Amino acid sequence: MDISKNLEKLYQKLLSEKTKDKSEKVILWIALVSFIIHLLIIGLIHFNIIGIQEPSNLLKNPIAAIYTPFSFILVYEVYLLIYYLPKSTSTYISKQYEIIALIIIRRLFKDLSDLSLSFNWFNINTDLQFTYDLLASVLLFYLIYLFHLQRTKVYRVRESSKNYAAKISKFINAKKWIATALVPVLLIIAIYSFLSWTIGVLYPLQTDAISFKNINNIFFEQFFNILIIADVILLLFSFFHTDEFHKVIRNSGFIISTILIRISFSVSGLINTALIVSAILFGLLMLFIHNKFEKALAKESLESNQIEG
Length: 309
Hints:
The chain is mostly helical. It has one domain. The two termini are 44 Å apart.
């Protein structure tokens, strides 16, 4: 009993509405300050006031400075993902999709600083990547909109029995425990990623520095590994309160969608973009078919009640 109370207190301390609002303000200030500092460093290098051996593109073009505040905002988005985990599975998955879309938007700022702007547009990798990301960002925005429409549809009135309520309560508590455990994991990975990012930018030629390509993925690559484990645990816990076929398939489909997103970090170019779009499209179709099941079951329930009446 004491363990449950302590976990609830810790959950409220880490993932309450008040903590979320405070975290948002802190992150926004950090993002603003980091943007100004990044611009200042670019200016100092440009006027040869400070010297860095072979600076990366992040320290050459002012447009690339937007990459830094966006990175902090993305970390906050991951916190929001954890925040919504105990509240709604579909909202939690929706946040995953929003994060990967924002990653592509962030990558566009980096792509802009690398553009060649020549007649050989389709023969230059950086220009092609910009094209892929530009088209993908629009498509993902629309798919996430469709996902939002589907997840807000409710067709059936839920059971009100004490047994069902107890099962739901246990499942929500399990989600709270998982969410609480994910917060320190988020902090540890974020700190490690920031240090790796700093080393990669300031010392790009060091053999032990993280490459620029890996800096784009390092935080999310590791965190999505953790999310896959969390999703599987949630799927197993969900069996304690429901064994409905369409819900099991939907939740399993969401895990596959998360795995596809994780795999996308391992590749680049068109394959990376195709995997991300496929992941969100797959999740959307799973939710769409799940809602069709819900609608059919609601109709059956209504007809059954009318016959009994």
